[in-house]
Automatic annotation (TrEMBL):
Gene3D superfamilies: NADP-dependent oxidoreductase domain. Coiled coil: none annotated. Pfam families: Aldo_ket_red. InterPro entries: AKR (IPR020471), Aldo-Keto_reductase (IPR050791), NAD(P)_OxRdtase_dom_sf (IPR036812), NADP_OxRdtase_dom (IPR023210). The keyword Oxidoreductase applies. This is Aldo/keto reductase. Transmembrane segments: none annotated. It comes from the Bacteria. Keywords: Oxidoreductase.
Length: 325
């Protein structure tokens, strides 16, 4: 597995997102035992970069990751996130990046993860009530205390990134980026490159859509998070299938799977890009990691670059409203 630097932090260029091990997609399928085997298999295949968050569950995803990495902590770049759970009474889903909330959150995350330090600690969403300078200032204190090594932001807009980076170097921005979510290319990627910040694309498989495994919205159960996503609904879903059909055509040419093409395309965008595909299954983690070995021709990359844009917003209105622009 090739390793790259994201803002000075060395990571395997393909990581593993743990979110779907604790609900969200295909709820009820899989098991904690299979999830832990998936994390172990990823480690054995050279993955070092693992991503979780306080809000996933909440809490149970960090606990699961903590159990899985026991005894192997020193092989891992451990990333987690705060700011989508307010410990002052608001609870889950409430934006809170105030200094007091960060101090409460970090100790809980460390305990659940069974570690004394977090390698990459992200603000999960920008909190309009707390100046970003105050948030970063608190993270700088946590670095001084040895609890955190590197700072990340998630779904932050250009102005916030510049302000944060002026207080202390930001190592990585985590934002949705994939063959059907190309928004970061216009403004964010050039800014990150100017500032020397790495980029961690989340949902690099389009929440599973780009793998070609889901051919109709009816395949998703009612408690699947994707039911709330406009791109997975009705007519939008059917129109978006032409994207995955073109990905499949490229996959057939190089004897790969659509998931591998989606990841190889992201890796071809630069050596500062470290996607974190999510899965709770050993076979799929093996498949996804093999994308590290895949080479796409310039012509294939161009065809993928020219795919029709996705139909539908990438989140529902509530989730779009908390994205900083
Ligand atoms: N910062 C943020 O706000 C934010 C938001 C969303 C996600 N994330 C992070 O990004 C990570 C990845 O994003 P994501 O999980 O939303 O989406 P994703 O990686 O684009 O897709 C995950 C989905 O694809 C399926 N899948 C994975 N590999 C597959 C394969 N080879 N063939 C067929 N299906 C496959 C998974 O199913 P199974 O699990 O059943 O295998 C799961 O349903 C998360 O785990 C989380 O750490 C961050």
């Amino acid at each position: 597995m090739k390793h790259i630097s994201i803002g000075g932090l060395q990571v395997s260029r393909i990581g593993l997102g743990a979110m779907s091990m604790s609900g969200y997609y295909n709820v009820g399928m899989g098991s904690d035992a299979e999830s832990i085997r998936t994390i172990h298999r990823a480690l054995d295949l050279g993955v070092t970069h693992f991503d979780t968050a306080e809000i996933y569950g909440p809490y149970i995803n960090e606990e699961l990751v903590g159990r899985a990495i026991k005894g192997r902590r020193d092989q891992i770049v451990l990333a987690t996130k705060f700011g989508l759970f307010s410990h002052a009474g608001g609870g889950p889903g409430v934006l809170d990046s105030s200094p007091a909330n960060i101090r409460a959150a970090v100790d809980g995350s460390l305990k659940r993860l069974g570690t004394d330090h977090i390698d990459l600690y992200y603000q999960h969403r920008v909190d309009p009530k707390t100046p970003i300078e105050d948030t970063i200032g608190t993270l700088v204190d946590l670095i001084a205390a040895g609890k955190v090594r590197y700072i990340g932001l998630s779904e932050a807009g250009p102005a916030t990134i510049r302000r944060a980076h002026a207080v202390h170097p930001v190592a990585a921005l985590q934002t949705e980026y994939s063959l059907w979510t190309r928004d970061p290319e216009a403004e964010l990627l050039p800014l990150l490159r100017e500032l020397g910040i790495g980029f961690v694309p989340y949902s690099p498989l389009g929440h599973g859509f780009l793998t070609g495994e889901i051919r109709s919205p009816e395949q998703l159960s009612d408690d699947d998070w994707r039911k709330t996503n406009p791109r997975f609904s009705g007519e939008n879903f059917r129109r978006n299938l032409r994207i995955v059909d073109e990905v499949k055509a490229v996959a057939a040419e190089v004897n790969a799977t659509p998931a591998q093409i989606a990841l190889a395309w992201l890796l071809a965008q630069g050596d500062d890009i470290a996607p974190i595909p999510g899965t709770k299954r050993v076979a799929r983690v093996e498949e996804n990691i093999a994308a590290d070995q895949l080479h796409l021709s310039a012509e294939q990359i161009e065809r993928l670059n020219n795919l029709a844009p996705a139909v539908g917003e990438r989140h529902d209105a509530g989730n779009m409203a908390v994205i900083d622009r």
